[in-house]
Structure formats: structure tokens, C-alpha cells
């Protein structure tokens, strides 16, 4: 009872009218107060994840009264992961564990279930099936050494879900299993095994597993179709399309929608008839790939596609569908925001909506579709007033090779946008990710201190078509950096940036670029901050989790090549003699993507050249900052270093 009382008090404080104070570094580094808000199928309860004592807790609320009915919080180093409403009363959730030497959590594949009032708790699936499951008082169940993920909640069946399970072994690939699991007893029945390694599945509208798809060890597409109790190679269905990814079935189950590519252009949405394998391109953007696809919970069919060419855009498969109309109504009611329908009731009449933009990390609303009533629920981070945040403005320019490059400028609020100190912030990846028109707490913190921030979707970035992405392959130290340098020069030429007050700071591949760019243009940057960066490209083939992954070495050979001379030419560890910028290196000892050996290699190169540098290493952090206090400390160190080098008071 004390537990529920405490959470009720917390909820009252968060729902109370908020008085904004000037935001602190702690405010920018904090986790969202609310996230993953989901409504029960009958619309009577809400689930919401909140962070308490640096751990994820699942709070369940009576929607009418907005009072807690139960809270799932584990003892010790355990916390709640993703969760799912599987019927009106029951939730299935993942259990995570904090690593002893790391701030981040790890998922060992355990699924647990509980009712909204805390009753009928059950350990459903996992290796610890016959053991204790922590303070949530989950009961025993038969153990299985596999990692489970909810594949389908089977909306027409209150007792069962489909679970996709990856058996444990010592290899980097497994053949995926699908089980039908009783959400009350944990009893399970194997439905099928994937015909290819590390596969995913697509379920049709009759709740039958119909497609299995994956990439092989050489990163080639593999697609199989289930028919007459066997898996059949479905290459004929995708034909000459590449990067083929099934999204959903059409309502009659005779066709599927898929994201795919043809001739190196931007990815498009295709409708593919299964019997004839006939393709029909239904939606394609000239400049960008689909960012998000919208699937109806009622029909399991595609109804809208989201793109982002500077700002979010939406295109509809059927503009007259109820879902398309609801999305358009929400866009009109909450203008200048990215709209996401994050959860809905089984009848589709009540929606949980998240609205966010460049100045707002996310507000949650309840939308009554029948009565057209929109009710504000709460802000993801109430400490940050969107009215006090800075604009993120889309930009584009033509680079030295005649290619149009897109990006974003965060422009500090309340000052003239001329001759500003500038931080260039290359994104990670580099292949696949791209920068978006979103709220970025680190960039907003810099803008609060009068520093503009430049983000560049350089060649090699995802989101602009296959040809654009592949044009950055084997060009990490050339074309990609040239685009970053050309973007910086663009900001200077347009009068935004003071050419004498420019620094570069990035994480992961961005950390690589933060060191590589000043080596190619030594007079352009006053300082460079490498966070969790890779600096020795030869080493990428030997250390870290990429070469250990299925298809990882093939990927590295494709995007980096295997020529040692070229790898060294693109590695910052071999070009310290070209540096003029002041350097700060930030790293976590438990980083598995860019292991600490990368930091040590860069540090060794700097020492051998007697080049001065600053550093900060966290013993429990990995690839980025999981702990909010550590993130705040990083922000403090970063901001102090930038202010000193950019002459910002």
C-alpha cells in the first residue's frame, strides 16, 4: 500500500501545473519522466514507463480516475523492459538486468505476465522458469534457454500470443522459433522454425505465420513463404527488387505491402500480389526513403507512410480510411509537430497520441475519435519548456562534387543569427542512420549557451536512397568528411557562423569524424571532441561486436574495404601530425561497439606525437551514456571545453 501511495504522490506532482525555471544541465540530461504510454484494449487502463532510482518501473493507471492500480518494479538489478497489453486485463513484459560492471541493462529473453491489478502474476518464458523471478512475485514455469520477443499479440485471442524465440548457442546465428504461448499458464506450443538464420516473421490477418525473412552472412536478402506446411523460397515474389522488407498483408490476405528498392533510387512502398508476384509501386518520395510506416491495429494493414525531407510529411494509402482521417485531424489539431499514434483501443475509437518537434521532446494526448475530443495527458520532460528551446532549421546546399546535401542548424533563441560560435555535430553510423528534425537535448543545451549546432546528412547516410548511401562506402576519410567540411563552410558563408569560432563534436562514427575532419582541414576547427569514437579502422576488423556479428565482417569489407593502405589513410591514429585543434576524448570502458582499445590507440598516437589532449573515461559506461548522472557530468565537461575554445562566456 505504501508503494502505491508513493506513486500516487509522484503522479500528482507530475500532473500539477508546472512552473518552468531556467533549465539546468541536469534537466537536459534527465530521462523522460513518462514514456511508452499504452492504453488497454477496452480503454479502461493506461500503462506507462517511468524512471525511479535509475530503473524502469511500469505504472498501471485507471484511466477514468488517473489513479494507480498497480506498479511493477523489481528488486536488485532488475527492471522492466518493453511491455504489451495482450487483452483487457493482462500485460506481458520483458525483464531486464543491469550488468554488474555496466550502467546499461541487458535482456536475457524472459517474459512475465500480470493483470492490471497485480493479480495472476506468472513467469511465462525464459531460462529461469523454475526459479524466483523477483519482487513482482511471478510464479514458476518450465525453463527454456532462448531469448523471447513478442511477435503478435493475437488481438482476436485473449489467451494466447505468438512469441519469437532465439535459442542460445555459442554461434552468432540461430534458427528462430515461433511459439504459441498461453498468457495465463505459460504453456507453449511450437508453431514453426525459420528456414534461414536470424529470421523475422510476418503474420497475416488470419493470425497465421506466413513470411520469414532475413539477411545471410553476406548481407543478401532472403525471403520465404509458408505454404502447405513448408517454407518455400519466395524470391519470385520480390523479383528484381532489393532491400525487400515485408510490412503487412492487405486486408484480404492476397497481397502484401513491402518496402523495397529498385535501381538505386529512394526506397518505395510496393503492393505485391502473392499469386502472380505482380508489383505495384504505390508510394515513393523523390528525395527521401520512408521513415515510418503506419499499420492499423484493427485491420493490420498499411494506411500511411511518414517521410522527412526537412520536416515530417505524411502520405496515405487510403485517404478515406478511419485511421488516415484520424491522423489528418490530429495534424490539424496539433500543428507544427510530428504526430505518432502510439497506442489505441481494440475498436480504434480512443488513441494515445505523442506530439513532438524540434523544441518539444514529446507530449502525450488522449484522443476520442468519435467525439473529436483531444485531452492533454502529460509531457515527457516537464522541466523543459518548449517555448524556451531553440529552432532546428532544415538546410541544403550543393557540395564540391555537385551533390545536394541536407542537414539541420540549431539556432540559439534570443540572439541574432549572425557570426555565432558553431559546433559541427556529425551523426553516428555512418550507414543507415541520418539526422532528423527532432528534439536533441545535447544540441539544445549548447543553444541555451549561445552556441549554434550544425548536423549534416553526408553521403553514406541512410534515408536518401541506396545510391546516396553507397556513395559513402570506402569513403569515410574522403567524401563523407568533404561533405562535413563543405557544410561547415556553407554555415560560415551564409553568415551563421564565425569562422574563428568553430568546433566539431560527435559520437561513435561522429567521434571518428570529429578527429578526421580537423586533420583534413586543420585551420577550420578550434577544437574537437571524440565521444565513443573509432579511430583505427584496421582494428575494427578485430575488436568490438561488429566483426563478431552475423554478417559483420562482410559488412565491414563492403563499407571499408580491405586495403591496409587505404584503411590507414582513413584512420585518425595515422594523421596526428596534421592536427591543430584542441582535443578532448570521451569513452566508456565497457563499450562493445567502439571498444576501449580504440580510445587507447588514439591516445597512444597523440602521446607519441607529444600532442596535448584532454580525456575522460567512465568505467561502467558503454557506447554512450546510460546513467543520467554520468550524462550530466559529460555535458559539464563538454560544455566547459567548448566554451573555453569558442570564447563563450
Topology of this protein?
Elements: H1 2-15, H2 25-29, E1 35-39, E2 45-52, E3 55-62, E4 67-72, E5 78-85, E6 90-98, E7 105-115, E8 122-125, E9 146-152, E10 160-167, E11 175-182, E12 188-197, E13 200-203, E14 209-215, E15 221-227, E16 230-233, H3 235-238, E17 242-249, E18 255-261, E19 268-273, E20 279-284, E21 292-295, E22 302-309, E23 311-316, H4 322-333, E24 338-344, E25 350-356, E26 363-368, E27 373-379, E28 391-398, E29 404-411, E30 420-424, H5 441-448, E31 452-457, H6 466-470, H7 479-493, E32 497-507, H8 509-520, E33 527-531, H9 552-560, H10 564-569, E34 582-588, H11 596-608, E35 614-618, H12 628-646
Parallel strand pairs: 30-31, 30-32, 32-33, 33-34, 34-35
Antiparallel strand pairs: 1-2, 2-3, 3-4, 5-6, 6-7, 7-8, 9-10, 10-11, 11-12, 13-14, 14-15, 15-16, 17-18, 18-19, 19-20, 21-22, 22-23, 24-25, 25-26, 26-27, 28-29, 29-31
Biggest β-sheet: strands ordered side by side in the sheet: 28-29-31-30-32-33-34-35
Secondary-structure-derived class: alpha+beta
Portion of residues in beta strands equals: 35-45%
C-alpha-based Rg, rounded? 25 Å
Helical coverage, percent range: 10-25%
Number of helices: 12
Secondary structure tally: strands: 35
- Overall geometry: globular
Mean pLDDT reading: 93
The rounded distance between the terminal residues' Cα atoms is 51 Å
**Low-confidence stretches at least 5 residues in length (pLDDT < 50)?**
1-6, 12-17, 131-140
Main sheet characteristics: 8 strands, mixed
